[in-house]
Design brief:
By secondary structure, the protein is α/β, with parallel strands linked by helices. It is built from seven helices and 28 strands. The longest helix is centred in the middle third of the chain and has 14 residues.
């Protein structure tokens, strides 16, 4: 019997999952509840912001040309026309050689096109202001629409809203936004050797790492994880656990049970469900070759390797990109070691990043997929495509951050 059957290349696995992944739903949420949510459509400005020309400093609103040539030794003389109050429209305009006091954020009077900072002025009597430094047109002024113009795309579909983004939307009067609904993803750990993390493993047993790692990364990218505990190597129990998980989630992750020794057992259960189809069993990658995927009706089950590093990596490169259109965060770096790769497979090299002062340096984090700590030692990974046989030390690479 072949070691794996229906083995596909990484790119084909991506397409099969994408074509069979449950469609993302959308919903409208209040702006106050939109932090870290992903926009499902562009957000456009429906007004100019600001709607009036305003000062960025405390000082005097002037006609800029009236300040030209002003110095400390030969200051300009301006007549004080009045004071602009915050939140009010000036009831006067500025003419030749006139000025008006304006606080930061106040509206400029008509005729003014610049603001002289208070530090470069001196009041002489009640109605005369000396100017010791000139300003150019619109110095210290925010112009109408300088922040945003009516009809301008403020945030694009696929943007993940940060705290500062919410502030921008609040300034524009946006009260609710259309976002992608979080995907519900069930997590099942299978295997007689898996024990809860609060137990002391006996010889041959390991604690359930994958339930916690996968739940954390799902939460981090905006999904909603549901864990279904540890299911031993029992057909009936696995079938019951999968049935419950499929009822409550769009996607189910089966951690363990995808490798060769357990292949017939896992697939027998998965393919026993009505309208089930094996998409692939085996992906030409390292780590994570024994990954499988089965479509069951409108749901998807992804069988991940039991080894924590392999499970985490395969979820990260295959499943995570399908949970929303947010692009991966990537940085450019230079490898500090030669890295070999076998032709015909995609390798995902875990790396640690450091700043050399001249740029980022990527150091490979080596270790077998059964080792746990290499998960936390790496900052990201470098994708080595199947047609490439590695990288040389000093070669630039693109690092996808975890």
């Amino acid at each position: 019997m072949a070691e794996f059957f229906k083995v596909v290349r990484f790119g084909e696995a991506q397409k099969l999952l994408r074509d069979n992944f449950p469609p993302l739903q959308t919903e409208k949420v209040e702006l106050s509840r939109s932090l870290n949510r992903v926009l499902a459509r562009d957000v456009l400005s429906h007004e100019d912001m600001p709607a009036f020309e305003r000062s960025t400093v405390d000082g005097y609103a002037v006609r800029a040309r009236d300040t030209f040539g002003s110095t400390e030794s030969i200051p300009g003389f301006l007549t004080l026309k009045g004071e602009v109050l915050m939140g009010q429209e000036p009831g006067f305009s500025i003419g030749q050689s006139e000025c008006a006091w304006v606080p930061t954020g106040a509206m400029l009077p008509s005729g003014a096109d610049g603001v002289v900072m208070m530090e470069y002025t001196e009041k002489l009597g009640e109605d005369t202001v000396l100017v010791s430094r000139p300003v150019g047109p619109y110095d210290n002024v925010i112009r109408i629409g300088e922040d945003s113009r009516w009809g301008e795309v403020i945030f694009s579909r696929g943007s993940r809203l940060r705290a500062q983004d919410i502030g921008v939307l609040a300034a524009l009067g946006v009260t609710e936004v259309k976002v992608f609904s979080p995907m519900h993803m069930g997590i099942i750990s299978s295997g007689d050797e898996i024990v809860p993390i609060n137990e002391v493993p006996t010889v041959g047993q390991v604690r359930d790492v994958n339930s916690y790692t996968l739940a954390a990364v799902i939460t981090n990218i905006g999904g909603i994880p549901r864990t279904y505990g540890i299911i031993p190597d029992n057909r009936d129990l696995l079938s019951q656990g999968l049935e419950k998980a499929l009822e409550e989630n769009e996607v189910v992750l089966l951690s363990g049970g995808s490798s060769v020794g357990e292949r017939d057992f896992s697939l027998e259960v998965l393919l026993s469900f009505p309208d089930s189809e094996l998409l692939f069993h085996g992906v030409a990658t390292r780590p994570g070759k024994p990954t499988l995927a089965v479509r069951i009706g409108e749901h998807l089950v992804v069988g991940l390797p039991g080894h924590p590093v392999a499970a985490f990596m395969m979820f990260t490169v295959l499943c995570a990109p399908l949970l929303g259109p947010v692009p991966a965060r990537q940085v450019r770096a230079v490898l500090n070691a030669n890295v070999a790769s076998q032709a015909g497979r995609d390798d995902f090299l875990r790396v640690e990043l450091s700043d050399s002062g001249e740029g980022m340096v990527a150091t490979p984090v080596y270790g077998k997929s059964g080792l746990i700590r290499i998960l936390s030692l790496a900052d990201g990974f470098v994708h080595i495509p199947y047609e490439k046989q590695g990288f040389k030390a000093g070669e630039p690479v693109l690092v996808t951050l975890f």
